[in-house]
Specification:
The strands form 4 sheets. The protein has a 6-stranded antiparallel beta sheet with strand order 3-4-5-6-10-9, with helices on one face. Strands 11-12-13 form a 3-stranded antiparallel beta sheet. A two-stranded antiparallel ribbon has the order 1-2. β7 and β8 (668-670) form a beta hairpin. α13 crosses α14 and α32 packs antiparallel against α37. Helix content is 49%, strand content 7%. It contains 37 helices and 13 strands. It folds into 6 domains: 12-139, no CATH class; 162-272, no CATH class; 416-531; 574-603, no CATH class; 617-719, Phosphorylase Kinase, domain 1, CATH 3.30.200.20; 725-903, Transferase(Phosphotransferase), domain 1, CATH 1.10.510.10.
C-alpha cells in the first residue's frame, strides 16, 4: 500500500512554478520518458515541488497516489509541460504544440501504468517488504509481468515511507551492501541518480547550503576523488558513494552528477557567494577533477560547459567570447596531456564548429610550449605511464572534431615530443638537476630508451651515450659497491640490469653510430636476495627475467677488449708552482698528500667529463681551481692569476644542455648540429656581454671583468673574486625578512647600476636574491647576466630556464617583448621576497587568477604608497609597469618621502 501522506494534496505553501531548464532531450516512447535523461529534466522542472514533498522523479513516475496529487496541481503540470515543450521546440523538426501533446500523452500513460501497478501490488501478501516479495517471484510472475518495472515500483513504495533524503539514501546504499540482485542494484542506481539531482538531498549529503560551485565541487570530489569510507561519527554516506563510483557500480548516478555539474557551469548564476577569488578557486577545482590525463570527464558537453563558464569572465560576451575562451582556458591548464584532451573534447562541441582553426592553433601552441613538454617528461612518474598518456592523447586527437588534414600532423607531432625533447639534450639536463642518485637516473634513461617513445634515428643514440657516461663515473661504481644490505638499492640494481638487457637486445647490429650499451663487465652483478614487496621496483611486463649472480662486494674494474677507459685520469696532485694547492690555492701544499684547507685531491667538486680539473692552465696565465658554482649555462671556478699572484673568479660558458666535454679533453663539443647553432649564438652573446661589462667598470655595483677570451672551443670571463654573501643568504640571516627601508637600502645601489646597464642597451634578465651580492666591505654587486642563455634558447629551440616568482610573463614566451620593464618586474619581485619572506606567485600561476597579496596583507609596517609602487612593478602587462629604473627610483623615493640624488 502506498503511503497515506499522498491521499491528500500537499500544503498550499508548496511551490507551483516550474524550475529553470535550458535544454531537454526529445522523448518519444514511455521508456524514453522514464529513462535517465527524461527523469533529469523532470527533476529540474518539478524541483521546487519535489523538494517540498521529499520525492524523487522515480517515485513520482511509479507511484499512482503521489502522481495523482501532482496532476491535481494542474497549473504546475501545465507550466512545466509548456516550459519543456518550448525548449524542445528549438530542435529542428519539432514544434511546441506537438511536443506539448506528446508530454501530456506520456503523463497519461505513466499514470495509467502506475495505477495498474498499484492494483496489482495491492493483491500481494504483506508479510514481507515489497522489494523482497518481488525478488522472490519468477520474472514472469511479478505483479504486472514486467520484472524490471515492478522492482522499481517496489523500491519506490519502500522509499516513499522515508520522509528525509538521507534516510532514502541509507535504504539505497543498503541495496548495495545486500548485493543480492543486479536488477535491484540497477534500480537503486537510477534512484540515487535522481536523488543526487535533488538540491535538498545534495545539500544534506554535503552539509549545509553551499554555493552552487561549492556543491558541484563536492560532488566532483565524491565521484572522482578517492575518499576513504568509514566514519567514527556516524554513517559515511559520501565515502560509500565514492567507493561505489570508483567500482563503476553507479553508472546512472555518475551521468546524473555530470549533468548537474555541466548545468551548473552553463548557468549564469555565480559559482560562489564571495570574492572573485572564490569563484576562480571553485572553477579551478572543478577543472582539476573533470579535465584529466585520460580525457575530459563528460566529453565534449563538459568541455563546452567549462568554456562557457570561462567566457563569463570576459568583458565582451557572445560568440567572440566563446572563441577567445578556448585558448584562454587551455592556457590555464598546466599539464600538457590535460590541455590536449580539453582542446580535443571542445572541438566536438557544436558551439566550436566555427572555431576549429583557433583550436588547431591552440594545440600547436601547447605542443610547442617547452615548459609543458619538460613537465610532461620529467614529472610523469614512470616511462610506461608516460607512454600510455602519449598514446591516449594521440587517440584523442584522432577522434576529435578537428579538420581531417590537421589531425595526422598534430598526432605525429605529439608522438614525437619525447624523442625531440631527448634529442635536444633537455632530458639529460633535466634529469641531472632532478635526480641526484645516479642509479635512479640511469634507470629513468633506460626506461625511456626502451619505452618506444624515442627512435633509433632520433634520441636513442643520445640516451645510450649518456647511459655509458653515467656508468663510467666513479660515483656510480662506488654507489653500486655500497648497495649490499639495502633492499631498495638491490631492487633498483636488478631493475637496471633488466632494462640494460632489453636495451642491449634492441641495439642495432654492426658498426652503427649509436653509442654502445654498457657491457655487464662495467657493472657489478645483481644480488639474488629477494626484495620485500614494499621496496620492490615494478618491472614492465615485457622486461625479461634477469639471471641472478653472486653478490659482488666491490665494483668490477676489468674492461672488455676495445672498451674505453672507465674514467679519465685524475691529474696528479701537483702544487701551483709555489707550494699552493691547485684547488684552493692556499699555501703549504707542497709535499702533502692532501690539502689541509680543502681536502684535495681526496675531495673535489670538479667532475671529470664536465668540469676542467684543478691545475688546468688557460691563456698560459690563469690556473683553474675548484668549482665555486654550476648553473645551466656556465660553471664558475676559483682561479689563480699566475702573473699578478691573486685569486680570481673564472666563469666558463658551458651550457650543459647543448655541449659535452670529452673525458680527458678540455675541449667541448655540441651534441648535434642543431645544438651547435644554439651554442654558437649563446657564445657570441656571452662575449658581447663581456665586452660591455668591461666598459662598465666604472659602475662599481657590477662585478668587474678583468679579462675575457676564447679557449677550448668555448669562452671565459676572468672577474674579481668577491668576499661576502648573496642577498638570499643575507635575508635568511636577518630573520627571513627585511623592512621596507632596509630593503631599499640594499637595492638602491643595484637599481642605479641597472639603470646604467639599460642605458647601454643591455637587459639583465636574471635578477633575484641569488644574483645580488653583498661584500664584506659593504658594497653591492650585480651578478650573472642572462642574455647568453636567452640567445642560446632562441637559436636552439630550448626550454627557457627561469627562476619561478622572479621571471615576468614575457620571459615565458618566445615572442615576448623584453626590455627594462623585464628587469623591473624581477627587481620588484626581489623586493617583495625581502619584505614578505617569499617571492610572489609565479607568473604562470597568475594567468588564470591574478591575485598577488600585497605585502601589507602579510607583514606590518608597509607604507601604502610604497606598496602601490611595488605592486605596479609586478603588473602582468609590461605596459603597466614603470618603463625605466630611473622612474622606479623616483617613485620609491617619493613614497618614502625622500629624494634620490642620483636621479634628480
Amino acid at each position: 500500500m502506498e503511503p497515506r501522506a499522498f491521499s491528500r494534496k500537499p500544503a498550499a505553501a508548496a511551490p507551483t512554478g516550474p524550475g529553470t531548464v535550458d535544454e531537454a532531450v526529445i522523448c518519444r516512447t514511455p521508456a524514453d520518458f522514464h529513462g535517465l535523461p527524461g527523469r533529469l529534466v523532470l527533476g529540474i522542472v518539478l524541483r521546487p515541488y519535489l523538494d517540498s514533498v521529499v520525492l524523487t522523479a522515480t517515485e513520482i513516475i511509479h507511484l499512482a497516489s503521489p502522481l495523482k496529487v501532482l496532476m491535481e496541481h494542474g497549473q504546475l503540470v501545465e507550466n512545466a509541460t509548456a516550459r519543456v515543450a518550448m525548449v524542445q521546440a528549438r530542435t529542428p523538426g519539432h514544434d511546441q504544440a506537438s511536443r506539448r501533446a506528446a508530454i501530456r500523452n506520456a503523463v497519461a500513460e505513466t499514470y495509467a501504468r502506475a495505477s495498474a501497478a498499484h492494483s496489482a501490488f495491492a493483491a500481494l501478501p504483506r508479510a514481507r517488504p515489497p522489494v523482497e516479495t518481488v525478488l522472490a517471484l519468477p520474472a514472469d510472475k511479478t505483479p504486472t509481468g514486467d520484472a524490471a518495472y515492478d522492482i522499481r515500483v517496489a523500491l519506490s513504495r519502500e522509499l516513499a515511507e522515508q520522509r528525509t533524503w538521507l534516510s532514502k539514501l541509507d535504504r539505497l546504499l543498503g541495496v548495495f551492501r545486500w548485493d543480492r540482485d543486479d536488477r535491484l542494484a540497477q534500480a537503486a542506481d537510477g534512484v540515487i541518480a535522481d536523488l543526487l539531482g535533488a538540491t535538498g538531498a545534495a545539500e544534506e549529503l554535503c552539509g549545509g547550503s553551499p554555493a552552487p560551485g561549492a556543491l558541484a565541487l563536492s560532488l566532483c570530489e565524491m565521484m572522482l576523488g578517492a575518499t576513504a569510507s568509514g566514519s567514527a561519527l556516524g554513517p559515511d554516506r559520501a565515502g560509500e558513494l565514492n567507493a561505489l563510483f570508483r567500482q563503476g557500480r553507479l553508472p546512472q548516478a555518475r551521468d546524473a552528477v555530470l549533468d548537474r555539474i555541466r548545468r551548473t557551469l552553463r548557468s549564469p548564476q555565480p559559482l560562489g557567494r564571495g570574492q572573485p577569488k572564490d569563484e576562480a578557486d571553485l572553477f579551478k577545482g572543478i577543472i582539476g577533477h573533470v579535465v584529466t590525463r585520460n580525457g575530459v570527464v563528460g566529453d565534449g558537453a563538459m568541455a563546452e560547459a567549462l568554456t562557457i563558464r570561462f567566457s563569463r569572465r570576459l568583458e565582451q560576451g557572445g560568440a567572440s567570447a566563446f572563441r577567445r575562451s578556448i585558448p584562454g582556458l587551455a592556457e590555464t591548464i598546466g599539464d600538457l596531456f590535460c590541455r590536449v584532451h580539453y582542446l580535443c573534447a571542445v572541438s566536438t562541441a557544436q558551439a566550436a564548429e566555427r572555431h576549429l582553426g583557433e583550436i588547431v592553433d591552440a594545440l600547436d601552441a601547447a605542443l610547442g610550449n617547452e615548459l609543458l613538454v619538460e613537465n610532461m617528461v620529467l614529472r610523469t612518474a614512470d616511462a610506461s605511464s608516460l607512454a600510455r598518456s602519449v598514446a591516449g592523447a594521440v587517440e584523442a586527437i584522432a577522434a576529435s572534431g578537428l579538420p581531417a588534414e590537421a589531425r595526422p600532423r598534430l598526432a605525429a607531432r605529439l608522438a614525437g615530443l619525447v624523442d625531440d625533447f631527448a634529442r635536444r639534450g633537455r632530458l639529460t639536463h633535466g634529469l641531472r638537476a632532478q635526480e641526484p642518485v645516479l642509479r635512479r637516473r640511469i634507470i629513468r634513461l633506460a626506461e625511456l630508451a626502451v619505452s618506444g617513445l624515442v627512435r633509433e634515428e632520433g634520441a636513442l643514440p643520445v640516451l645510450r651515450q649518456h647511459i655509458m657516461e653515467i656508468v663510467k663515473q666513479p660515483q656510480f661504481q662506488a654507489d653500486l659497491a655500497e648497495r649490499n644490505g639495502n633492499d631498495l638499492a638491490q631492487a633498483e640494481v636488478r631493475r637496471l640490469y633488466a632494462l640494460l638487457d632489453r636495451l642491449r637486445q634492441g641495439a642495432p647490429a654492426g658498426g652503427g653510430r649509436a653509442a654502445p650499451v654498457p657491457p655487464p663487465a662495467l657493472l657489478p652483478a645483481p644480488t639474488p636476495a629477494p626484495v620485500p614487496a614494499a621496496a620492490a621496483i615494478p618491472v614492465t611486463p615485457c622486461s625479461p627475467t634477469v639471471p641472478t649472480a653472486p653478490t659482488v662486494q666491490a665494483p668490477v674494474r676489468r674492461e672488455p677488449a676495445g672498451a674505453v677507459a672507465l674514467l679519465p685520469a685524475v691529474p696528479a696532485a701537483a702544487s701551483a708552482g709555489d707550494g699552493r694547492c691547485p684547488a684552493c690555492f692556499e699555501p703549504g701544499f707542497a709535499g702533502a698528500p692532501v690539502c689541509r684547507a680543502c681536502g684535495y685531491p681526496a675531495r673535489t667538486d670538479n667532475r671529470p667529463g664536465i668540469h676542467l680539473m684543478p691545475g688546468a692552465l688557460l691563456q698560459g696565465r690563469y690556473r683553474i681551481g675548484r668549482v665555486l658554482g654550476q648553473g645551466g649555462f656556465g660553471a664558475t671556478y676559483l682561479g689563480w692569476d699566475e702573473r699578478l699572484h691573486v685569486k680570481v673568479a673564472i666563469k666558463e660558458y658551458y651550457p650543459t644542455n647543448l655541449i659535452a666535454r670529452l673525458p680527458g679533453d678540455p675541449g667541448v663539443v655540441p651534441f648535434s648540429d642543431e645544438h651547435g647553432k644554439g651554442f654558437a649564438a649563446g657564445l657570441r652573446k656571452f662575449l658581447e656581454e663581456a665586452r660591455l661589462l668591461a666598459r662598465l667598470r666604472e659602475v662599481k655595483e657590477i662585478v668587474g671583468v678583468q679579462d675575457f677570451f676564447e679557449e677550448n672551443a668555448t669562452a671565459y670571463l676572468v672577474m674579481e673574486l668577491l668576499d661576502g654573501r648573496t642577498m638570499k643568504r643575507f635575508i635568511a640571516e636577518s630573520g627571513g625578512k627585511l623592512d621596507c627601508r632596509r630593503t631599499l637600502g640594499v637595492l638602491t645601489p643595484i637599481m642605479r647600476a641597472l639603470q646604467a646597464v639599460h642605458d647601454h642597451g643591455l637587459v639583465h634578465r636574471d635578477i633575484s636574491p641569488d644574483n645580488i651580492f653583498l661584500t664584506t666591505a659593504g658594497e653591492r654587486k650585480l651578478l650573472d647576466f642572462g642574455a647568453a642563455r636567452h640567445a642560446a634558447r632562441q637559436e636552439a629551440n630550448l626550454t627557457v630556464i627561469l627562476k619561478p616568482g622572479y621571471a615576468p610573463p614575457e620571459q615565458y614566451s618566445r615572442d615576448g617583448r623584453q626590455g627594462p620593464w623585464t628587469d623591473i618586474y624581477a627587481l620588484c619581485a626581489t623586493m617583495y621576497c625581502a619584505i614578505v619572506g617569499k617571492p610572489p606567485p609565479d607568473a604562470t600561476a597568475r594567468f588564470m587568477e591574478d591575485t598577488v597579496p600585497g605585502p601589507s596583507e602579510l607583514v606590518s609596517g608597509v607604507p601604502p604608497a610604497f606598496e602601490k609602487v611595488l605592486m605596479s612593478g609586478l603588473a602582468m602587462r609590461w605596459q603597466d609597469r614603470p618603463q625605466s629604473v630611473r622612474s622606479l627610483i623616483k617613485a620609491f623615493g617619493a613614497a618614502m618621502g625622500e629624494r634620490d640624488e642620483a636621479v634628480r
